[in-house]
Amino acid sequence: MAPQHNTYHPKDAISATVRATMVTTGAGAIISGVQNTLTKQNVGPFGILTKTGGTIAVFAAMGGSYEFAKTASANLREKDDSWNNAIGGFFAGTMLGLKFRTLPAVLGYGSALAVIIGTFDYAGASLSGYTRDPTVDEVDRKEFLRKNRRIPVEQTVAELGEGRGIYAPGYEERRRERIKEKYGIDV
């Protein structure tokens, strides 16, 4: 087999950053709205911007810095791997740490988010588990699994016994004989 040459195609960091910033700003606005709703005092509808508006800014900064750092590092390294996500996670974590205005918080949140996001991407980037091969037909896959894991009837009857919907071959004849022997009735 010939070695595979995966060529890297550069991505537009600015447009990806703008898109991610818009999405995370919207998410921050929703979270800010929830925070505004849960306050004990009535701050009004503009409290989303005045009282809890910092949440929107933190979300926007985290999303924008993550996407820009991830895309820029991928373009500079010319590789698309988990390290790019870890670098982006570090920058996003530092944006969260800036809210606390201490260097340990900046480095701590940056490192923590870098490890979490890098590990998540390295492990498959899925919360639903293993992704199936899209080229394999689902019906064929399930039929193969049924045939592959099927246990012979004789083994099932030997382990569980007859009854409860599990009957070995020749069950009807044995049943007729038992009924005739016990009750004297031909079935």
TrEMBL record:
<protein>
    <recommendedName>
        <fullName>NADH dehydrogenase [ubiquinone] 1 alpha subcomplex subunit 11</fullName>
    </recommendedName>
</protein>
<keyword id="KW-1133">Transmembrane helix</keyword>
<keyword id="KW-0496">Mitochondrion</keyword>
<keyword id="KW-0812">Transmembrane</keyword>
<dbReference type="InterPro" id="IPR039205">
    <property type="entry name" value="NDUFA11"/>
</dbReference>
<dbReference type="GO" id="GO:0005743">
    <property type="term" value="C:mitochondrial inner membrane"/>
</dbReference>
<dbReference type="GO" id="GO:0006120">
    <property type="term" value="P:mitochondrial electron transport, NADH to ubiquinone"/>
</dbReference>
<dbReference type="GO" id="GO:0045271">
    <property type="term" value="C:respiratory chain complex I"/>
</dbReference>
<keyword id="KW-0472">Membrane</keyword>
<keyword id="KW-0999">Mitochondrion inner membrane</keyword>
